[in-house]
Amino acid sequence: PVRYCLGFSARQEFDEKREEWILRGRHAHSWCRVYIDGTPTEALMEDGSRGIVWSGGRWVDFDPTPPSWTTVEGGRLEWRQRVNDWIQKLREDFLLWRTRPDNIARVSWATGIIGALLIAYVAVRLWLSRTRTGVRRKPPKRRVGPAGAATPFHKLARRAEKLLGERPDGLAQTRWLMQLAGPLPDLEPGLRDAVHLQWKARYDPLGLEEAEEERLKEVCREVARGMRKGRAAVRRKTVEAGGT
Hints:
This protein is an alpha+beta fold. The chain is built from eight helices and seven strands; from the N terminus they run βββββββαααααααα.
């Protein structure tokens, strides 16, 4: 009779400092156990059949594997394996130390303190992050009025409706007002200044400086005076355009 056995070859590596044998996956091994010096005897089996039973012998190990199989499998340890072994030994030593009765209370206290410190650190980091985010997201202070507030430019646009008619849908207000420069070319510089300052008041987060606000008022007043003087000319041009 023969039996097939699976196990490990436990005499490949020995740690002299720890006085223990080391088993690795590559130490897995198989061999046979052979029954020798036995005598076969015919006997009645449990299922009622008759079979051969060996007795009076002994089991011995029979391993036909060549002695050099450890070299073939790779007996040298790589540096990564040595690092992993060192880490694994530290873990095992810590687990053994932690489970000792006189160290359980120390581990509990140390774990609680470390956990509290980590929670405090995360809370402080979140608070600082939110504070910095709030400072960055705080809108800059406008020097003159909020965005979208009425300016002298809007009053100028209402007066221009009397000369140009209602602004068509889809036509920008600034482009629409610049049409006044056609019949009234003298107004073009003032209109361009007014449009530039209006864009800055509308889209610049900081708005207008006080001097720029005064400049916008002055330019709009000059354009309004020019519109009143040239109203007849504008009407005449509009009528001529309508006739054509």
